[in-house]
Write a structure and sequence with these properties.
Layout lengths: L12 E5 L3 H10 L3 E5 L14 H13 L3 E6 L8 H14 L3 E4 L2 H10 L5 E3 L8 H9 L4 E3 L6 H10 L3 E8 L11 H4 L18 E3 L2 E3 L6 E3 L4 H7 L3 E4 L6 H16 L19 E2 L22 E5 L2 E3 L2 E4 L10 E5 L7 E10 L5 E5 L10 E6 L1 H6 L20 H8 L13 E6 L15 E5 L2 H8 L2 H7 L3 E4 L9 H13 L4 E4 L13 E4 L8 H9 L2 E3 L8 H5 L6 E6 L2 E5 L10 E3 L5 E7 L2 E6 L3 E2 L4 H6 L4 E5 L7 H13 L17
Parallel strand pairs: 1-2, 1-11, 2-3, 3-4, 4-5, 5-6, 6-7, 7-11, 10-12, 20-21, 20-32, 21-22, 22-23, 23-24, 24-25, 26-32
Antiparallel strand pairs: 7-10, 8-9, 13-19, 14-15, 15-18, 16-17, 16-19, 17-18, 26-31, 27-30, 28-29, 29-30
Helix pairs in contact: 1-9, 3-11, 4-15, 12-14
């Protein structure tokens, strides 16, 4: 076992995943200074084994006795009726003395800060904080540590570090999402299983068809920042984080051991890279750390499975598959059979290995695994590595006591349920049109809506300032929206642009992340876009405390949650939903279309230096408007940001809105079927 007590106090923290008790042991043995783990609720890896409170009660004192910190992930978005359960759980974790809570939901941040101030708050990467303004906003909310977005260069990270006093944590190893974390709607849109609520179905790893060619257009390589350990240490980063709560103890032990060695001897990392072959992941890349994205991190012709590729299944006989591979495979090893569709594969243990014809290898798997010719076979676990893992007796610790209930939950819920935002709109209703081009402003009139949000970049806003007639036409009804990703180097220029807009009398703005709050002076009137997730009244109160005068309900929300979640938000009734928002160029060119194995269609757009994948079926809730009004929702949004500006389109959508008519070939998203 690695003796953490011998670590010099100035060392950077090495943070390892613990998706199970065995993985926690593996992390500690390999030299982790801290582990992060999830419980059975409110964590973004619900499919991991995870911990119960009872197991945590034993594991927590064990880890802390060895000077290993324990961070608990409560990093999902939380529905209104789940708040009482969250409060009880926070009370229990507070009583147990966990070292920190990792959160995404603004409501959770507000609850912890006010009622559980002893709990340290770490901002999850799901908050999409990617610049010093985001870090400053998080720190103002009482957050002790920010886990930065993964799409950053080393120079950007260093600049953020110099501009901030908050602790910063960066990922250094593991799987990458195609979408910026916290901004992905793909899994939710394609079946109601929200990645923001721990149920990601890995839509980015699937095979898509485009122009009669199939490919893995959105599946990136895995991340490896081994070469950047020393620069991170020199920059003053607080913690290096390894991804992998879905991974087995072998992975945790191997990768944690490699990064432990790199931290202890950062001048001797060359010999460590070969050991990372046995993390059984994908090909490795340094992502954006060098400042430019390495070529080939997405290859359409490369399957999305993890592990050491053995090759395609040549043929099958019962539970035996045949492959051509020089890789040594032994009974007890684990293989993953990855279907050609890119959907998640099935893992199984090897029972027997024999030689086949013409150099083939005949591998017999345990019963119950469907085998098909053409599927890809990966080795994801070595029995010999499993034998190398230290064995552990049962943890013999006095368990930390925790209360079964929270005595003040009811009182707290009463306080949280008080209405924060008043209903808005003339005669009970208001309409906002959201667009991304000034051309739309000439196609509609101020009498047809209460406000127009134009989401542009700095160049477009500079052009807008010269359009005197448009500014006079719209006046105070015009709202300027910010894009969802503003690089650190662009912050100063954006502040100049915002000041110029305000000097011209444009004082109403829409923010796309909470971090953008720090860009505005007090005189600005701010509303929050749908990407500032708000699924509960505690989050509403936090936004109001930040000076946000208007919020949007999440587009992935459902009617049951909206009906109990306060009446002061705006709800998108129509729009093409951005399922992925990414800084990564995909293996599909902008303006192209593709479809998945189920025939769901998508199209790709590039805006603000970002890549957006959108479903071809727009969200349309026009026929539900009266029902929503009865539920108390009074402010609605028509989103045309990803549509060509045409007068006929504008007139048709406004008519369909007024007449509550369904748009052909549209979807209600999760509105009726429910958000899981």
């Amino acid at each position: 076992m690695y003796i953490n007590q011998q670590m010099p106090p100035s060392s950077i923290e090495l943070l390892a995943p613990a998706g199970s008790l065995d993985a926690l042991h593996a992390a500690i043995d390999a030299g982790a200074n801290a582990v992060y783990l999830g419980l059975t609720d409110f964590n973004a890896r619900l499919r991991a084994k995870n911990f119960t409170l009872q197991t945590l009660a034993y594991a927590l004192p064990y880890a802390q006795r060895l000077r290993v910190k324990v961070y608990v992930t409560l990093n999902t978005l939380i529905k209104q009726q789940e708040l009482s359960g969250l409060i009880t759980l926070l009370h229990q974790l507070d009583s147990m003395g966990v070292d920190a809570i990792i959160v995404q939901d603004l409501g959770a941040v507000a609850i912890i800060r006010k009622w559980f101030p002893r709990l340290a708050i770490h901002a999850s990467t799901q908050m999409a904080l990617h610049n010093s303004a985001g870090v400053a906003t998080a720190q103002s909310l009482g957050i002790k540590r920010v886990i930065l977005s993964r799409e950053l260069s080393l120079d950007e990270i260093i600049t953020i570090r110099k501009a901030s006093t908050c602790d910063l944590e960066v990922f250094v190893h593991g799987a990458l999402c195609y979408s910026i974390s916290g901004l992905c709607l793909a899994s939710s849109f394609l079946g109601g299983s929200s990645g923001n609520r721990g149920r990601c179905t890995q839509a980015c790893r699937r095979s898509y068809a485009a122009s009669d060619n199939k490919g893995f257009y959105f599946s990136p390589d895995d991340f490896c920042a081994l070469d950047y350990v020393r620069p991170f240490m020199q920059a003053g980063i607080a913690s290096l984080k390894i991804e992998g709560r879905m991974k087995n103890p072998q992975y945790v032990h191997t990768v944690t051991g490699v990064y432990r060695a790199a931290i202890d001897s950062p001048d001797n990392i060359d010999g460590l890279k070969e050991r990372l072959r046995y993390d059984f992941g994908r090909s490795k890349c340094s992502f954006f750390l060098s400042g430019t994205l390495p070529p080939g991190i997405i290859r359409a012709d490369r399957t999305a499975g993890v592990g050491i590729l053995l090759g395609p299944v040549l043929r099958t006989e019962g539970q035996t598959l045949f492959v051509n591979s020089a890789e040594e495979i032994a009974p007890g090893d684990r293989l993953r059979i990855q279907p050609a569709s890119g959907f998640e594969g099935v893992s199984a243990k090897v029972v027997r290995v024999a030689a086949g014809l013409s150099g083939e290898r005949a591998i017999t798997l345990e019963p119950g695994v469907a085998l098909h010719k053409g599927d890809s076979v990966y080795c994801i676990g070595r029995v010999e590595l499993q034998k190398n893992l230290p064995s552990h007796p049962r943890i013999n610790e006095q368990p930390r006591p925790f209360p079964k209930q929270c005595s003040f939950t009811f009182k707290l819920m009463q306080e949280l349920s008080a209405q924060t935002y008043p209903r808005s709109g003339d005669n009970g209703q208001a309409l906002t049109i959201q667009c991304n081009s000034m051309d739309w402003l000439a196609l509609i009139g101020p009498q047809e809506c209460s406000s127009v949000v134009i989401t542009g970049d700095r160049e477009e806003y500079n052009e807008l300032l010269g359009k005197t007639s448009l500014l006079q036409k719209w006046g105070k009804r015009l709202v300027c929206g910010l894009p969802p990703f503003i690089a650190e180097d662009d912050l100063a220029a954006w502040k100049v642009a915002i000041n110029a807009l305000m000097a011209a009398g444009l004082t109403r703005f829409q923010i796309s992340t909470i971090g953008q709050r720090a860009l505005f002076p007090p005189a600005a009137s701010l509303r929050a876009d749908t990407s500032v997730w708000c699924l509960n009244q505690a989050a509403q109160k936090q936004l109001a405390a930040m000076g946000i005068t208007q919020f949007n309900y999440s587009v992935e929300d459902d009617i049951m949650n909206i009906s109990v979640c306060g009446k002061g938000g705006a709800l998108v009734l129509f729009g093409f939903m951005p399922l992925f928002i990414s800084r990564i160029p995909p293996a599909l060119k902008p303006d192209n279309t593709c479809e998945d194995s189920y025939g769901n269609g998508f199209f790709l757009k590039k805006r603000h230096g970002l890549y957006y994948l959108l479903g071809q079926k727009p969200l349309c809730l026009f026929p539900k408007r009266k029902k929503l009004v009865r539920e108390g929702v009074s402010h609605f949004v028509i989103d045309v940001r990803f549509m060509a500006p045409e007068r006929q389109t504008a007139q048709t959508l406004l008519r369909q809105y007024r007449e509550e008519e369904r748009v052909d070939n549209s979807t209600m998203f999760n509105f009726k079927m429910g958000l899981k």
